[in-house]
Amino acid sequence: MTTPAPAKPALWFVDTSSLLSLAADDNLRQTVQGELVSQRRVLLDVVVGELERLASQGLPGIKDLAVAALRQLDWLGEPVDTDELVAAERVVEIQDIMRSGRSLKHPAEHWAESVIMAMAERLQQMDPYMLCEDYNARVESLHHNLTPFSIHKLLARMVQGDRLAADGAVTFADALQTAERGKDYTAGEFISGRLGRVGQP
Q1: For 156-165, which contacts have Cβ atoms below 8 Å and span 24 or more sequence positions?
Q2: How far apart are CA 140 and CA 3, in angstroms?
Q3: What is the total count of domains within the chain?
Q4: Which end of the chain is more exposed for a tag (fewer CB within 10 A), N or C?
Q5: Residue 2 falls within a domain, yes or no?
Q6: Range of the domain at 83
Q7: Where is 166: in which H helix or E strand?
Q8: Pairing of β 147-149 and β 127-131
């Protein structure tokens, strides 16, 4: 009988969009931190750089969230310098896929997600996950050795695992909707996991 290979340890990449959403509600952020606290998390320098750009140049609502997010990064550890970890040429290739033939709004658009994907596709000893609010980035990440989660999908997993009450997930969804970071969802949708686009892939 063949002994199954031991499970690889999880490694969570937390991207800019998810940090903006977590900044919308302290209780939500603390709940997500509690869910991931026993697993390795990584914060990339390019994500911090994007938050800093949004904090100074973003639209008013996004700017406020970025400023708050920059004060809430301690749980992710020191930012990792990615300059020597990924080839810029590979990141550009992924960024080109992400822009889907459209002109970039600015040179850094999709850059942080592309760096995450370039890093993850090289990992062999760990099981990489990405917490990300961008649907297209989640879809593309499947081709780069990542398992993607939106915050709503992570909340649904917690509800289904009896680590969060469905009503609590609804409260968090309401907070995200108020911050224009999500739509309205019911307890039943969190229990079933049928969250539409936000729950996929």
Answers
A1: 156/189, 156/190, 156/191, 156/193, 156/195, 156/199, 157/193, 158/31, 158/35, 159/190, 159/191, 160/191, 160/193, 163/35, 164/31
A2: 33
A3: 2
A4: N
A5: no
A6: 10-149
A7: helix 166-178
A8: parallel
Same domain, 128 and 171: no
Considering the entire predicted model, what is its pTM?
0.94
State whether 128 and 166 are in the same domain: no
Residue 199, in any domain of the structure: yes
Token digits of residue 46: 């390019």
Burial annotation 70-107 (CB, 10 A radius, 16+ → b, else e): eeebebbeeebebeeebeeebbeebbeebeeeeeeeee
Residue 5 domain-assigned (yes or no): no
Rounded distance between C-alpha atoms, residue 34 and residue 19, angstroms: 15
Note the pLDDT tens digit of each residue in 14-23: 999 999 999 9
Give the pLDDT of residue 5: 65
- Torsion angle of alpha carbons 201, 121, 86, 6, nearest 10°? 110
Q: Are residues 115 and 171 in the same domain?
A: no
- The type of residue at 112 is A
